[in-house]
Amino acid sequence: MKARTLRLLIGLAAGSLVMPQSVGAQQAIYIVRHTDPPSTLSLDEIRDETPLSESGQQRARMLAERLKDAGITAVYATQARRTVETAEPLAKALGLEIRVHSYEDSGGLVHLLRSEHGKDKVLVVGHWSTIPEILAALGDSEEIKIERSAFDNLFVVIPKGEQAPVVLHLHY
């Protein structure tokens, strides 16, 4: 039932994107946290080169299955191996290159999203600490806190020009 609800919500969000929008407005930005690293490591032992666990790889494939028909035309991930591995199944399915950006430059990423992907649907794979920064830079005024142990967050951001964006916070 969870998967059906997630597909419905993503479908509703994607369906609402065919409504008229301001010129230059992005259609949607899907923002996810990377999936699960190995459970044998403590949160403090995780480094940039830490890969996904088997369950994390499965969750990344599930994410790709859920988003493959969303019309995504660009995929961004940070330099951390687990964000790239989270993005890989969808990028491969869509024939897209993963564009790597620094997790220390959320503002620069948002600038790229606005300047290079003004009318696109984009996937961004980030971290518990960067996603709230990205959402705030996109105009979301709600305070978002992501637990370091939660790997199933999915945000769908629908910019509304000068108005605050519509933000759906889902779990997959």
TrEMBL record:
<dbReference type="InterPro" id="IPR013078">
    <property type="entry name" value="His_Pase_superF_clade-1"/>
</dbReference>
<feature type="signal peptide">
    <location>
        <begin position="1"/>
        <end position="25"/>
    </location>
</feature>
<protein>
    <submittedName>
        <fullName>Phosphoglycerate mutase</fullName>
    </submittedName>
</protein>
<dbReference type="Pfam" id="PF00300">
    <property type="entry name" value="His_Phos_1"/>
</dbReference>
<keyword id="KW-0732">Signal</keyword>
<dbReference type="InterPro" id="IPR029033">
    <property type="entry name" value="His_PPase_superfam"/>
</dbReference>
